[in-house]
Amino acid sequence: APAVTAAARELALTGALGVATRVWARVPVEPAYREALPDVRFDDTLDPAALDAWVRGATGGLIERLPLAITGETLLALVNVLALKARWERPFDTRRTRDLPFTDASGTTRPVATMARDVPLADVWTVDGTYVVELRCTGEEGGGEGGDGARVRFVLGEPGAGAARVLPAGWADRTAGTRPEADRVTVALPRLALRTRITVTGQLPALGVRLATSDAADFSGLSPEPLAISDVVQEAVLKVAEEGVEAAAVTVVAMRAAGAIPPPQRLLHLAFDRPFGIVVLPAAGDVPLFAAWQADAPADPADPA
User: Fold this and answer.
1) Residue 286 phi, psi (nearest 5)
2) Which of 5, 222, 242, 294 is the most exposed place for a label (fewest CB within 10 A)?
3) CATH of the domain spanning 2-86+194-257
């Protein structure tokens, strides 16, 4: 429990990043468990409308409701929210945004709204043939003074390279990267809006979590009632535009009863015109807050959902 609290407080040092965890329960929760998590609010009811309202408020409206149906068999729900809404340190110039072709994973090409700007050479590197471009956010949404801002890395692999090969470059130590042989770097980056919902329950055994989902589960430190994990679901939203980035993730664990060189310059232009990855990192550390893979033609966040 102290490690959980310390990790959440460290994440909260990243400017414009909101971190919140809340537990709703129909069963008693041990006092020692509550005391061990001083930053977590515990509610003794399990009202679906209240959960939806909390999720909506905690994510600034990016996620409208809990990504899991609360039923009569749900005895406890642990909900964790990460929400980021931050401006770029150097916003894109909207006058340079124009429609450019994007070829998706199926080979279909269509025009998408694409932003453009120069990027400092120090913020571009390659890892095993994958280009990494890091853009920094300000510490607060409005660009005021706050903690250090999040870092957003866009990763572009060779044509045809998939997510499993490309995305790890986004959280690799940048000191392991190789600087490009260029004097100036420009990027063409699509505006995008991504939304995913994943049921993680089936992947838990591969992560070594087996007893917790069975009738042999032991959560006696949490509640005197016998409990087992019934569902683990995560919904995430990511939006990238000229002004900045918005991202939110809601994870639900539900429990049931158990049985500089003078011209000419060498120009490197990176066109994100094919599937690419996005990794959002905290101000310090290389553990991703959000990771996404844009395989289809990006949806414009300015378009109605």
Assistant:
1) -120, 25
2) 5
3) 3.30.497.10
- Give the strand order in the sheet containing 290-294: 124-127, 130-136, 151-156, 276-281, 290-294
* Stronger pLDDT, 89 or 256, i.e. the higher one: 89
CA distance to 79, 210, 231, per residue, from 204 (Å): 17, 7, 10
66 with 48: CB under 8 angstroms?
Answer: yes
Q: pLDDT band at residue 146, thresholds of 50, 70 and 90?
A: low
- CATH 2.30.39.10 positions along the chain are 88-191+265-294
Q: Is the pLDDT of residue 145 over 50?
A: no
Write down the pLDDT at residue 147: 63
CATH 2.30.39.10 holds for 88-191+265-294: yes
Phi, psi of 80 (to 5 degrees): -120, 135
Neighbours of 185 (CB within 10 A): 21
88, 101 Cβ separation under 8 angstroms = no
Element (H, E) at 85: strand 76-87
Contact 167, 293 (CB under 8 A): yes
**Amino acid, res. 142:** G
Looking at residue 261, its pLDDT comes to 43
Q: What is the pLDDT of residue 143?
A: 43
